[in-house]
Amino acid sequence: MKPLVLQRINELIDGYKLSKNAFANKINMEQTTVNNQLIGKRSVSIDLILNILLAFPEISSEWLLRGKGNMLIEGSKDNAEKLREFTVIVDKDGYLKLKQ
What we know:
The chain is mostly helical. It has helices at 4-15, 20-26, 31-38, 46-55, 61-66, 76-83, and strands spanning 87-90, 96-99.
């Protein structure tokens, strides 16, 4: 039986309808490394977990690591959709700003 964390990672991949290659690219890891962990050839690394949480900020770390609560942080999907409506610009003073 696969470790429960690994099951949740596969649930995440399926939920986002990503190929294993697209998933590896999204979390900025080598596909071979990710595949070896996903099939259980290697144990799940802390790098994999951290990269998932960085690439998918709407994913609950509590859910991913311990299976507690919902996969998505409440309200995060709405916030993620709203953020896509903005563009990051640099103002005349060199500060980053969001422009709608």
